[in-house]
Recover the amino acids of this structure.
């Protein structure tokens, strides 16, 4: 069974409906005037006039009394349309039988049926109306006329085919527009999700590279102070003051990365070289010495802010690994500015490690460091290389092109990167 057509509230559809109403009343008025002029005072005249008035009222009030509601099922809506058109068609048929000149009122009824009824019902209505039109025209002609017999069905078939084809094209266009709107909404939601994930990744890397490492340094300094508190209070106070300095630095870092600003060491001015020297001074202590070497040739490094921030975060993460896991006595930060890229090397003389990821290794703050560095560099089109072996120290190299390609900031860290 054909599905009922949805009630179209588009302005163009309302305009077409208004045109059909006006055409119907003009044809009805013209047919009534013709009948009154040619058949005045006949016994059927009052009936013709009454039926014409009834037909006009039914056609005028039909959309109000029988118009479908948007929330109705298709079957109920189709029945309401048939209930509206049925009395109109029946009264028109009676009029055509009594006065064949009313047959021209069928033209607006064709389009009304095609617009409002399911396809099969609409074609059935068009067939019935066409039969009555042919019979009425033959009666008016007073004899057999092949043109009157064949022309109305041909015109009706052509009009119905064109109208139904247009309706199907419009339905396909509406479906395509609905798909495009749905796809655009899904794309917008996906972009919002990707933005949220990218921001989460940024915050996780910032927390790991600044707050988590700072808290680890504070813990180590406070533990050292606790060990020597009874025997050497001056040294213990030095450790406590160091922990307080780290806490102050962490507070500044937290305020800055919440607002997506540069690291505190870069904000003080002097560029990446000054920031690396401040970091080395802060990380150097009783058991670890950090040296800084900058090789910029004849030029002073002038790097984009994002590159400076990323390399400084890499240096912070690498030195945190050296301090917590390497057991090294010396470490070196080497910054090299080449024609097409900048390279930061971090080396230490610690006990090293095996870069191959252990099977089923658990992840955590310790295992997040190297993947976070790699992800940060990937955003700038850079690479991270780690060379190490047990007992031979570690060399980490971060290279960033000076004209980095645009990449997706939400790219995940390499899951195959070895945790350290």
């Amino acid at each position: 069974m054909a599905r009922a057509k949805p009630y179209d509230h588009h302005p163009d559809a309302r305009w077409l409906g208004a045109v059909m109403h006006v055409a119907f009343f003009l044809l009805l008025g013209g047919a009534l005037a013709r009948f009154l002029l040619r058949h005045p005072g006949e016994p059927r005249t009052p009936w013709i006039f009454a039926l014409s008035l009834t037909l006009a009222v039914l056609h005028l009030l039909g959309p109000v009394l029988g118009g479908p509601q948007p929330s109705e099922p298709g079957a109920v809506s189709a029945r309401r349309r048939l209930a509206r058109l049925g009395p109109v068609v029946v009264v028109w048929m009676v009029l055509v039988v009594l006065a064949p000149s009313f047959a021209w009122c069928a033209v607006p009824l064709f389009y009304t049926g095609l617009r409002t009824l399911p396809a099969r019902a609409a074609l059935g209505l068009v067939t019935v109306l066409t039969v009555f039109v042919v019979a009425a025209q033959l009666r008016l002609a007073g004899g057999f006329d092949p043109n009157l017999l064949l022309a109305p069905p041909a015109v009706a078939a052509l009009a119905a085919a064109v109208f139904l084809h247009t309706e199907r094209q419009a339905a396909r266009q509406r479906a395509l527009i609905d798909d495009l709107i749905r796809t655009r909404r899904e794309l917008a939601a996906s972009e919002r999700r990707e933005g949220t994930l990218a921001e989460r990744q940024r915050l996780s890397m910032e927390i790991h590279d600044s707050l988590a490492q700072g808290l680890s340094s504070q813990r180590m300094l406070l533990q050292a102070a606790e060990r020597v508190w009874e025997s050497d209070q001056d040294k213990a106070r030095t450790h406590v003051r160091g922990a307080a300095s780290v806490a102050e630095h962490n507070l500044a870092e937290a305020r800055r990365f919440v607002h997506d600003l540069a690291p505190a060491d870069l904000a003080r001015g002097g560029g990446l070289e000054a920031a690396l020297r401040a970091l080395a001074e802060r990380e150097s202590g009783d058991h670890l010495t950090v040296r800084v070497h900058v090789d910029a040739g004849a030029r002073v490094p002038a790097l984009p802010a994002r590159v400076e921030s990323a390399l400084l975060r890499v240096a912070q993460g690498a030195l945190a690994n050296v301090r917590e896991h390497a057991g090294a006595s010396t470490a070196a930060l080497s910054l090299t500015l080449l024609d097409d890229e900048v390279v930061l090397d971090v080396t230490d003389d610690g006990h090293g490690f095996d870069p191959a990821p252990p099977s089923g290794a658990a992840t955590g703050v310790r295992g997040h460091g190297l993947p976070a560095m790699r992800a940060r560099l990937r955003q700038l089109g850079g690479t991270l290389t780690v060379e190490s072996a047990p007992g031979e120290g570690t060399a980490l190299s971060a290279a960033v092109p000076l004209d980095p390609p645009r990449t997706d900031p939400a790219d995940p860290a390499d899951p195959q990167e070895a945790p350290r």
In short: The beta strands are 289-295, 330-337, 341-348, 383-388, 394-401. The radius of gyration is 43 Å.
